[in-house]
């Protein structure tokens, strides 16, 4: 029996639930303990259900930031992260966050409100075709046609998000369905509906990969985000040690091997890929970050083998010697078992050559990091950040040049310790990622490294961190502009024609103080370390605003352009 309302206390009678309660019950069954949102009338019944089910609601200042928080939640838990937004502008505001999750293989569930079914097509408040809008940036998009189908549609979406290559999904639910009361027996909550088999390599494919390794004199491993999502870091370390191969980590794969691991490298990647005769790519996309897997980034005659949970990645952008579809943890354990113990000794000269190039590049970086110039150089700031990062610190990178420098210098100790936007290059993820990391890991220190441009996109979410008591430290590398774009712009077109890339040296520290946190302005490199320790040792939200020399990064000869 379906009824149009509830009893006079606002709750359904025993044995009945509102659509909003069904939503919350599905989320609870899926292991979701927090949802991220910005309020609106269309989604209030879901809030009420979440309160009943003990799901914590965190409300943000912008829907994009709420979607980013769901993305971070998904990455840190390897489970679905949930954002709930109103229809129309709420959904469109969240698009960027969902698109970023799609590129990063992050299983986000975006739930959007919708106008009542009876008013569809009449021009109701905030009515747009949301499902069509979301299809191109999700693994699936659905609208719920009736209240009793809420559990089935939501669980279908969650299963889709988590199965195979993870990714975001979208479900819209009309507000009248959320407010309708229905007998529980008519809308049972599905259980045990997500099954993630862990495919292994078949014997023939494994034998081919074994032969490729046996024939290689200069093998290189590139470990990408798939290593993280398949929880394969330990198996990667075991394989790398047995095979004696240099490993370079990409994207969410950073930290799969600790920086100090003897097989972990970062600065010699160009040399190693340019000289390799075999490149084994594990869960990394052959996109712009790897030169599309083609020369001159990859050696002209290199054989390339790719292992990925997504079969559509096999053969993308270049022909492969071998493409393997399956679970990276399982396949790495298989590969370790068939790798001869003598391989490490055989390729030792190659490992020594790569290590020599790594050491040479590190020495050059150390010189930049030692700068005592005022204004502060990007690498000196990066070096000071590196000194305060412990194994228990979660690091979030949100910016251009300053994050690029930090990624070269800051040591990582474990998988999931470093979070950044991913291949979409979406700025503004920082505050959302950082406060979500603190939410999930309250005993760990959270360090957000932000460019001044990036901070301007969602800096208001520092108030969200204050409001929910989530102490984090945001370091703004403030070079007064969009440096990663401005430097090549000036180089190409000259100072007189450099437009739209300059910013003032804004007092972001005072802004965070106005939002209820603490802030400090730093202009001398000697003050960076003490202020970082002070902020990270605090139980408050901090902004350490460091004024940088806009010319310093250009002087290192490592200028990059974001294209």
Could you tell me the number of beta strands?
21
- Report the uncertain regions: 1-9
Using only C-alpha atoms, the radius of gyration works out to 25 Å
Structural class: alpha/beta
**Number of distinct helices:** 23
- Large-scale geometry: globular
What level of helicity do the residues show? 25-40%
Strand line-up across the major sheet: 4-3-5-6-8-7
Classify the beta-strand content into a percent band. Answer: 15-25%
| Mean pLDDT reading | 94
Give a verbal description of the structure.
- Helix 1 (19-29) crosses helix 2 (44-53), helix 3 runs parallel beside helix 4 and helix 15 (378-388) crosses helix 22.
- The chain is 40% helix and 17% strand.
- It has 563 residues and is of the alpha/beta class.
- The longest helix is centred in the middle third of the chain and has 22 residues, at 348-369.
- It has a 6-stranded parallel sheet, with helices on both faces.
- The protein contains 23 helices and 21 strands.
- Residues 1-9 have low confidence and may be disordered.
Give a quick summary of the entry:
With 563 residues, the protein is α/β, with parallel strands linked by helices.
Topology:
Elements: E1 2-3, E2 16-18, H1 19-29, E3 34-37, H2 44-53, E4 56-59, H3 63-77, E5 81-85, H4 89-103, E6 108-114, H5 130-134, E7 141-143, H6 150-162, E8 169-174, H7 175-179, E9 181-183, H8 203-215, E10 219-223, H9 225-229, H10 233-243, E11 247-249, E12 264-265, H11 269-275, E13 278-282, E14 303-308, E15 322-325, H12 328-338, H13 343-346, H14 348-369, H15 378-388, E16 393-398, H16 401-409, E17 418-419, H17 430-440, E18 445-451, H18 452-458, H19 461-467, E19 473-478, H20 483-493, H21 508-514, E20 518-522, H22 528-536, E21 542-547, H23 552-555
Parallel strand pairs: 3-4, 3-5, 5-6, 6-8, 7-8, 10-11, 10-13, 11-12, 13-14, 14-15, 16-17, 16-18, 18-19, 19-21, 20-21
Antiparallel strand pairs: 1-9, 2-9
Helix pairs in contact: 1-2, 1-6, 3-4, 3-17, 8-12, 10-12, 14-15, 15-16, 15-22
């Amino acid at each position: 029996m379906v009824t149009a309302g509830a009893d006079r206390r606002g709750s359904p009678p025993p044995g009945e639930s509102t659509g909003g309660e069904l939503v919350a019950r599905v989320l609870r069954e899926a292991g979701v303990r927090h949802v991220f949102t910005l309020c609106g009338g269309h989604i209030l019944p879901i809030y009420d259900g979440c309160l009943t089910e003990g799901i914590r609601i965190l409300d943000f200042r912008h829907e994009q930031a709420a979607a980013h928080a769901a993305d971070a939640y998904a990455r840190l838990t390897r489970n679905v992260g949930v954002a709930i937004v109103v229809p129309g502008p709420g959904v469109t505001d969240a698009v960027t966050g969902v698109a970023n999750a799609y590129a990063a293989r992050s299983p986000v569930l975006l739930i959007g409100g919708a106008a009542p079914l009876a008013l569809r097509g009449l021009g109701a408040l905030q009515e747009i075709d949301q499902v069509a809008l979301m299809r191109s940036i999700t693994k699936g998009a659905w609208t719920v046609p009736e209240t009793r189908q809420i559990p089935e549609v939501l669980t279908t979406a969650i299963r889709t998000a988590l199965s195979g290559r993870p990714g975001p999904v979208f479900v819209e639910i009309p507000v009248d369905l959320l407010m309708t009361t229905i007998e529980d027996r008519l809308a049972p909550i599905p259980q045990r509906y997500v099954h993630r088999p862990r495919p292994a390599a078949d014997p023939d494919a494994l034998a081919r990969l074994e032969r490729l390794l046996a024939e290689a004199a200069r093998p290189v491993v590139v470990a990408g985000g798939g290593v993280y999502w398949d929880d394969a870091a330990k198996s990667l370390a075991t394989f790398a040690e047995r095979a004696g191969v240099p490993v370079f980590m990409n994207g969410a794969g950073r930290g799969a091997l600790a920086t100090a691991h003897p097989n972990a490298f970062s600065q010699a990647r160009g040399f190693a890929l340019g000289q390799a005769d075999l490149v084994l790519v594990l869960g990394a996309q052959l996109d712009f970050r790897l030169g599309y897997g083609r020369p001159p980034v990859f050696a002209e005659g290199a054989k390339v083998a790719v292992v990925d949970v997504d079969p559509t990645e096999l053969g993308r952008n270049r022909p492969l010697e071998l493409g393997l579809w399956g679970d990276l943890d399982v396949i790495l354990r298989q590969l370790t078992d068939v790798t001869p113990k003598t391989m490490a000794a055989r390729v030792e000269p190659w490992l020594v050559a790569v290590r020599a190039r790594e050491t040479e590049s590190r020495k050059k970086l150390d010189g930049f990091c030692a700068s005592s110039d005022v204004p502060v150089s990007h690498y000196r700031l990066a070096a000071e950040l590196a000194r305060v990062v412990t194994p228990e610190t979660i690091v979030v990178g949100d910016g251009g040049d300053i994050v690029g420098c930090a990624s070269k210098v800051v040591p990582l100790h474990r998988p999931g310790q470093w979070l950044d936007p991913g291949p979409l290059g979406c700025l503004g993820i920082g505050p959302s990622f950082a406060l979500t990391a603190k939410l999930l890991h309250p005993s760990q220190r959270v360090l957000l490294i932000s460019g001044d441009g990036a901070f301007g996109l969602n800096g208001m979410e520092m108030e969200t961190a204050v409001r929910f008591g989530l102490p984090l430290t945001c370091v703004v590398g403030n070079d007064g502009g969009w440096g990663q774009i401005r430097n090549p712009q000036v180089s190409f077109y000259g100072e007189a024609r450099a437009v739209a890339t300059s910013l003032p040296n804004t007092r972001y520290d005072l802004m965070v103080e106005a939002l209820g946190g603490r802030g400090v302005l730093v202009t001398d490199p000697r003050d960076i370390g003490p202020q970082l320790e002070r902020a990270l040792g605090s139980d408050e939200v901090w902004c350490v605003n460091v004024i940088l020399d806009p010319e310093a990064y250009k002087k290192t000869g490592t200028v990059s352009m974001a294209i």
